[in-house]
Fold each of these.
Amino acid sequence: MNQRALKALLYWVIWMTVTIVGYAQLYQGTDVVEFMKEDNSRITWLIVSVFVFGVILSLLLVLALTFEWAQAYDVEDSVDKRGLEGLDTNRLRRMLGRYLRNLKYSLSINASPDPEQLLNVEIGSYRRVNHFIEVLGNLLITLGLIGTVVGLTLTLTGLTGSLKALGNDQELLIASLRDSMAGMGTAFYTTLLGAALGGVILRVFALICEHSIDGLHDTIMRLCIVYFGADLKPSSERDIHALEAELERLRKNVIGLDEAFAGSANSLAQFRSEVQLLRQPAGEEESTDSLHQAVKMQDYYCYLLKEEIEMLNTLNNPWRIRWRHLFRRWRGPTRR
């Protein structure tokens, strides 16, 4: 694989490493994990689950784009003067393979396709996935704000209970103050997690994927303009490319026919040797002549089968045998 294709994946890994190290230092003394275990609202669990889903989706998108980049660089390195007609698109897969095959089909039916519009259609799936990752980042920020409101609501509820229990029930006062502090923790932690995980990490992942998609778009368009430009408009050079491609396919077919004829010749030679073995006399090294032995055994089996049929006819229809003997006796004197 071309090392230039690993650029987006390298950026993704670097940013993931930086965020893990940075936020590990940031949350070192905050006991986020302990708070998530005791969070009754479960909003923090929802934020972390959406974040993990977005990270996995972003990683899959980066891997797909890396594969597309590798194919684009391979096409750029292997393309020759024959242009699009001489390019083997069957070995290409995913978006780039579909794009080049559709482009070749449009040219084969004498159509005038718009390569940029067709590329936008083919690459649109990657853009939609990247847009969904951006939406997940915004969703995390929104969930953080919702968690803030829920936490403040729990805080106010706890303060109300503590005011009612003030001077009356000491245990209820302590429990209400504990609930109010838990509500404040929910408000602060959900805001921090939503803003950090969604507003920073996922958005940067989406930015990396967006730049990779735009760069891939520009690279494929450069291929179309520089190497496939003569094939995209009717011209004598386009006809020459088509003729060269047909000659190349014809050459491959001729090579295939030669190989097939060579295989047929070997089969005929083997069949001829088998026939010659059948023509050998019975007394000539019968121990090594397996095919001749098989023919002799077949004749012997036929003879035994014939005798068995005669015996069954005799047992099943004895009058027939008697009439046959009488008929033979009657014809015997007339012949003499």
Note: The CA atoms of residues 45 and 142 lie 14 Å apart.
Amino acid sequence: MVTDSFISDEEQSAAVVNPVSLRRDGTSWFIVQTYSGHEANVKQHIEQAIETLDLGDRIFEVFIPTVEEIQIRGGQRKTVTFKKFPGYVFVQMVLDDDTWRAVKNVPSVSGFAASNSETGRPLPMPDDEVEQLIKEEELGQATFNIGFEVGESVLVIDGPFSDMLGEVDSIDTDRGRVRVMVSMFGRETPVDLDFLQVEKQ
């Protein structure tokens, strides 16, 4: 659960007494729970509510953390974007009755990920954790999903070693390269290849 990762029971108690995540200007980040697959719609509805209800001075940003994955299949490279936390939207706002009501009444919102058990009011999450998510998003560092692992058998499908079978010896995701042990002249020889040049058998 996202609430376990970001807001522990101790942090929730501390936030009620002294919400350290509140900024000097009174803003804070809150995690909004949505129905799965409705995150983008919720973001759009909140942004519409900001304009319709004139809340631009109290609701500042709606953020859906995403991660890019580079998939390598059959010699083709495809970049796919996934939601890092499906079912959650992050909202930066000044919490008062108007903003709380505006967000929780948005279609497909099921509530807030953390709330005060006595008052039912949402609890904020630490600013530095959201800022780290935003920084990762800005860096745009993609992960690789290459379809094979060290020790598995692969077929070389491009280059001078095409049609040769080999075993994955090491994977370098930073360079997008894989070292494959192929049999040449009766001995195992390491060959450095691009991810696009091999496919899993």
Note: The domain at 2-144 is CATH 3.30.70.940 (Alpha-Beta Plaits).
Amino acid sequence: MKIGIDLGGSHIAIGVVNNKGMIVEKIEKRIMSKEKENIIKVIEEYIINNIKSLKEKYEITNIGIAIPGTIEKGTIVKSVNLGIENYPIVKQLENKIPFPIQIQNDAKCAAIAEDRYGSLKSYQRSIFLTLGTGIGGAVLIHHQLLDTGNLPGCEFGHMTIQKEGIPCKCGKRGCWEKYASMKAFKDNLRKELGLTENTRGQELLEMIRQNESQKEDKDQRITKVMDEYIENVSIGISNIINIFEPEAIGIGGSFVYFQDVLLEKIKKYIKEKELLFNPREKLIIEPAILSNDAGIIGSVAT
């Protein structure tokens, strides 16, 4: 058995993965804004405590960690959404955990998992996007990650879609993830509806579904946020398609929980607005089959 850890900007998930790429047990926690003030301590304590518990139940061979941002030689060089720089996470954890540990960018881990076990396994050229706290990505060609040398590349979330736009934690302005991440979508919806951070994504989803079911008297506040989000997601996806011309796009992260209210609208917008340089008969955008577990599975599949 292997332990895969998905360390996101707003959650930590730990899963025990068997040799078929299946999760046999999973635990997770939401990272609240206040906890981010001492994020390294929160991460270390949660991982160490839970691995100590899991190793009593399973025969563990190694650990993989999927992390947003730039990774190099066991160190988180820069993770914008975690607010961490130059953190030697492998060295810190190996002092307290008796297993080999490998780390990899989270979007690339999820891409590997979806390419091997999930929605992208039938395609030779694909793009995988994670829409969650931020936006990550990976390019897959003949089931191999695009080699970008010493730098991770594929930082699709930090392409500029709005000149002099919203400031991003990366230091730039107008980055795609400030408009099209699921965090941006949910934050904008909470703000428009006057809700607090404690309003969970599932509650927001139910509000959207209820609003979508109304033939008349729709809540225009919800409709406004939805329309703006769909436009912003579509701009970024069409840019990526125009550059790489993949057979398919896969989307993971917390977006998968909202796919029934967003995905077809995004595909329709891209087609109707004629955003693609080379029009195609079939626009293939697939939700991650492995749902939000792809990062966990991919972290130990590399």
Note: The first strand starts at residue 2 and ends at 7.
